[in-house]
Write a structure and sequence with these properties.
The structure is a homodimer of 170-residue chains. With 170 residues, chain A is an alpha+beta fold. Chain A contains four helices and seven strands. In chain A, strands 1-2-3-4-5-7-6 form a seven-stranded mixed sheet, with helices on both faces. In chain A, strand 4, helix 3 and strand 5 form a beta-alpha-beta unit. Chain A is globular and about 55 Å long. Chains A and B meet through strand 5, strand 6 and strand 7 of A and strand 5, strand 6 and strand 7 of B.
């Protein structure tokens, strides 16, 4: 069963493993696949962000339980000051845990959490258009494409690729 | 005559005066009108930015010349890593120097400069829709509205106001 909770400092190594694997593809996130652990954790855990992890707990034959971190996301204001009522977010699922609905669980949880934090809308600024699984997931939770930036992403294998801006009210 | 040059540390007080006056209106930029000098200068001059000023030189009756800073703008990559070929920019003109074409001069200069720095497109993420003078200026230099975020800006007098995303190739 997947649970979602606030990330703790002790989760950082596991979060880095997910980030490292996700950005290695150069196909879904802008971060340079060669970005360092320190650089990416500084970014992912920067002070203005609310950071969460998705976990799965496995019970061994002996009855002991082990919690594995299988996904992570953060929420933050998309703009400062007079634009800080809009939420921005980013999500990553461990490639080894794909296909289990973890992305959807994090997405649904994040909308509720963003509401709870007082945000009135969710905005994604850079959804890689060729990442159709993500685009479909966001659309299924009510996010709409409100603009597309031509060739904003240098996809590692596809080359220049569009990026969508997506939005929904909360 | 208006000239444009790289900003220097000694320009910071004059740049702050422009920022202070521009954000006071709460009608064109997201920054809280109560933002401090330190906060705004840290933002405007953050290390990843190329910062410029527009100046006018006046000659006094005695023949001495005085340079006044009447505008400022910066250029930076709109995204890290695999999105860093797109430029982002922000511009401010001293309210006392409006109507002299300084915004247009900075805009035209900035496109050339962005090209020179190797960027392949310019993207603005947050152009307040009610700021029609700015929107028209950007359109006149080839920037197109590629998306509009509903009510993304809490305008000081108009209330919830849309923000445009604008773009052009370089």
């Amino acid at each position: 069963m997947t649970k979602i909770r606030k990330a703790e400092t002790s989760d950082k190594n596991a979060v880095w493993e997910i980030i490292r694997e996700v950005i290695a593809g150069g196909d879904t996130y802008v971060f340079d696949p060669g970005s360092s652990k320190e650089e990416m954790l500084d970014y992912w855990f920067s002070p203005e962000k609310h950071v969460y992890v998705a976990t799965e707990t496995k019970e061994s034959a002996g009855g002991s339980k082990q919690e594995n971190i299988v996904g992570t996301f953060w929420l933050k204001a998309n703009q400062p000051g007079l634009g800080d009522h809009f939420c921005n977010a980013a999500y990553m699922v461990s490639p080894s845990a794909h296909g289990k609905g973890i992305g959807r669980k994090m997405a649904e949880f994040s909308l509720e959490e963003a509401r709870r934090l007082g945000f009135t809308a969710m905005q994604f600024n850079f959804v890689v258009a060729s990442n159709t699984a993500a685009v479909r997931l966001w659309q299924s939770i009510g996010m709409e494409i409100i603009g597309t930036v031509p060739k904003a992403f240098r996809h590692k294998t596809l080359g220049p690729t569009d990026a969508h801006i997506m939005y929904r009210e909360l």
